[in-house]
Amino acid sequence: MYDNKPTKCLTGRVRLSYCHLTEPNNNYGGEPKYSVTLLIPKSDTATKADIDAAMAAAADNGVKGCWNGARPTVFQNALIYDGDGVRPSGEKFGKECRGHWVITASSKTKPDVVHISNIRSQLLPTDIYSGMYARVTINFYPYNYHGNKGIGCGLGNVVKVDEGKPLGGRCSAASDFAGLENAASQQYQPPAYAAPTQQYRQSAALDPITGQPITGTYGF
């Protein structure tokens, strides 16, 4: 049964980017974690409202807990970006982010990644890739790390709902080598089988030591 707690959110249909769901990523030298970036269509106002509410609930937990009763006037939020804007570095987001909200979720433990047609069976790693479509559970939490206060986004589980064009420039072998298979089959002609000549039959049928005809399995 779905655990419907205030800080938890089940997204609508989102596109996955920067997938690290089968092996943890070193997070640029930090602690290795499983992670994925969610591209949430801006038209999905229900998911955005759920995220906003879950983040607010996480902030309330922070006031009651690790923030020691005081809500920070300035703190690091669970970074949700406007895909039509720019990254913190000032660079523009990729074109796949246009028209989307962008948020990254991570976890120390491996998430379950299943298909909508069979939620009890794990997907093969080859079926998990950046660009596919899924619904994802995420959970927001407050933190206070060496005085840096904020809200993080934890990764729950992933259910794949549809295929999508792979992101990151990766192509399939079928597209990379299109046309080569037919060309190769036309260029290569296997040698025709030639029946042994009578001379060969005769020489092959004689024992090279005794000079006597060979009988049995190996004779012609």
How would you describe what is shown here?
The protein has helices at 45-64, 173-176, 180-187, 198-204, and strands at 8-10, 14-25, 33-41, 80-82, 100-107, 113-115, 118-122, 133-145, 148-162. The chain has 220 residues and is of the alpha+beta class. The protein is elongated. The N and C termini lie far apart (75 Å).
What does the main sheet amount to? 9 strands, mixed
Radius of gyration: 31 Å
Helix content: 10-25%
Could you give the count of β-strands?
9
Distance between the termini: 75 Å
Structural class comes to: alpha+beta
Helix segment tally? 4
Low-confidence stretches: none
Order of helices and strands: EEEHEEEEEEHHH
Mean pLDDT score:
84
Q: What would the principal axes of the Cα set say about the shape?
A: elongated
Determine the strand fraction and express it as a percent band: 25-35%
